[in-house]
Amino acid sequence: AQSVTQLGSHVSVSEGALVLLRCNYSSSVPPYLFWYVQYPNQGLQLLLKYTSAATLVKGINGFEAEFKKSETSFHLTKPSAHMSDAAEYFCALMDSSYKLIFGSGTRLLVRP
Amino acid sequence: GAGVSQSPSNKVTEKGKDVELRCDPISGHTALYWYRQSLGQGLEFLIYFQGNSAPDKSGLPSDRFSAERTGGSVSTLTIQRTQQEDSAVYLCASSPGTAEYGYTFGSGTRLTVV
After folding, report:
1. Residue B110: its chain A contacts at CB < 8 A?
2. Per-residue pLDDT tens digits for A26-50
3. Strands A106-111 and A10-14
4. What is the pLDDT of residues A85-109, one digit of tens each?
5. Which residue among A49, A51, A102 sits closest to B43, beta carbon to beta carbon?
6. CA nearest neighbour of B49 among B65, B68, B77, B28
7. CA separation for the pair A71, B66 (Å, rounded)
8. How many CB atoms lie within 10 A of CB A30?
9. What confidence tier does B1 reach under pLDDT thresholds 50, 70, 90?
């Protein structure tokens, strides 16, 4: 069965520090992987996606993620955190019937 | 439209009443999804419509939940005889129907059953 695991329900960083949000997946077929961000009282916004074209994917707001097949990972990074990055982040995998399977989410807190 | 539109944005209802939640997808998107987001449960798939195919209802939690999509566009999620555990944010998303695109989500309907 396909699944997504996000390590750490909460991550706290200082403004200007590196952001690293971890995502591991399980899939028997080459996956399509996504990162979404959710700001308070809003829906989910697509940050970036991996669709097998390139292993390093760049998204909006300075975020990027690297697909590592050997580690079954798709971690999200940003070199320098900004206060406006505080939100909840969801990693997701598209299953064989075109449904997105989400991880449990990681809430990013940015300290001034 | 420019984005996925959901209404109402907030709904408070009494236990036992029926509610209808509406989703207006992006024009031309053939796929439409409903998810539920509740505290401690994450994002839970409910139902998926793709074109004229029979919907995938495998995520509906009980027979109190139903959904329809009229004319391949607007969708309505209906919850009958609401219970307190139905309180959640109900998110709708649409997609062109190809896997690599991902979904575009609406802002959701926050349902509170009192």
Report:
1. 41
2. 998 888 999 999 998 888 999 999 9
3. parallel
4. 999 999 999 988 888 999 999 999 9
5. A102
6. B68
7. 40
8. 11
9. low
Across the interface, whether the CB atoms of A46 and B103 are under 8 A apart is answered: yes
The tokens describing A27, both together, are 């899939």
Q: Which of B36, B43, B30 is nearest to B99 (CA)?
A: B30
**Measured distance CA(A40)–CA(B24) in Å, rounded:** 22
Q: What is the CA radius of gyration of chain A?
A: 13
Distance in Å, alpha carbon of B109 to nearest chain A alpha carbon: 10
Contact B82, B16 (CB under 8 A): yes
Q: Which amino acid is at B98?
A: T
List of chain A residues whose C-beta atoms are within 8 Å of the C-beta of residue B103: 44, 46, 100
Mean pLDDT value across chain A: 93
Task: Give chain B positions within 8 Å (CB) of A42.
Answer: 107-108
What CA–CA distance (Å, rounded) separates B96 from A8?
Answer: 32
For residue A11, give both structure tokens: 């991550």
Mutation site, B49, B94, B100, interface A, largest A CB count within 10 A: B100
Type of residue numbered A9:
S
Q: Which amino acid is at B27?
A: S
DSSP states along B41-88: TEEEEEEEEETTSPPB-TT--STTEEEEEGGGS-EEEEE-S--GGG-E
